[in-house]
Amino acid sequence: MAHSFGLILANRAVVLGAITVRDLVDLTLEGERSGAFDAVWVGDSLLAKPRLESVTLLSALAAVTSRVRLGVGCMATFVHRHPVMLAHQWASLDVLSNGRAWLAVCLGGPSDATAAQAAEHAVMGVASAERVGRLEEGIVVVRRLFDETNVSHHGRFYALDGVTLRPPPVQRPCPIWIASNPTGLTWKGGASASEAVVERALRRVARLADGWMTNKLSPDEFRAQFGRIQAMAREEGRDPARLGSALYHNLNINEDRARALEESRAFLDRYYTTTFTPRFVEQWTVAGSPARCVEELRAYFAAGVGHMALRLASWDQRGQLKRFLDEVAPAFGGR
């Protein structure tokens, strides 16, 4: 099965003062030049985890790249954005990049997650309980605007008549993935969701998405969950072979695995302004010697992961990128 790597940019680190915008551009250019990466990813948030705005940043990167796909994973503010405005912005990005835009949407955090998350929903006038409905309806509207002319829609949250998007996206269809991890560990290490919630989340992907992005799963867990999604897609009358899959993961290369995980935890704690459990960090990170990292990455690909999006879980972003390109990527035909 074909597989690929993506480079996750730490666009929140600009707000934290840890790296510069120039660093993000340089990392992107190095990633594209290396040939090891198929995509560059950025995160998305408004108030909960402030950072450079995702569509704006990807538009800037579109101007300096020519090959890598440009992804947002995940667009946590999807439920806050009006689908007509977002469809126009995203189609424009796809035109600017000549068909390289890759949209992975998600629910964003619930209001009871943090005070900042509650404030984000409140300032945008979105009740936490509306997130699922807005996500599902928003995907339907955005997809129709990408693919059709004179679109009319009257739903629970959005109403429009005779809307034609100009310019349309280059990609036909322009992909819309859903990012979720309903059975993954929570940041404090507990269970994430009930079986009923898991069932609905996985079926949402099977019914509405072009692919599934997830995180914090072992290879065996990924294989089992993606298998469920593929079976559900078949039940929904869709071809499961057409569903893509991606893992949003962290990477730290260090011959001392314990030190690699320790550095990753320090990075993630600062990046997300929280305190993660060691178990949570280990579940979310490929860590250790180059040989150990190659082994762990191969296990994910063997489990059916199509795309590994990797964040360098260290403030030494350039050093970790160099080690990946020189010591890990060659095992997969890169560099």
Characterize this entry briefly:
By secondary structure, the chain is α/β, with parallel strands linked by helices. The chain is built from 12 helices and 11 strands.
What can you see in these coordinates?
This protein has helices spanning 13-16, 21-34, 54-64, 83-96, 115-123, 131-147, 195-208, 219-235, 257-272, 278-283, 290-302, 317-328, and strands at residues 4-8, 39-42, 69-75, 101-105, 151-154, 159-163, 176-179, 211-214, 244-253, 285-288, 307-312. It is of the alpha/beta class and 335 residues long. Strand 7, helix 7 (195-208) and strand 8 form a beta-alpha-beta unit. The longest helix has 17 residues, at 131-147. The radius of gyration is 19 Å and the shape is globular.
**Low-pLDDT segments, ≥5 res:** 187-191
pLDDT averaged over residues: 95
The biggest beta sheet reads: 8 strands, parallel, barrel
Number of helices: 12
Shape: globular
Which class of secondary structure composition applies to the elements?
alpha/beta
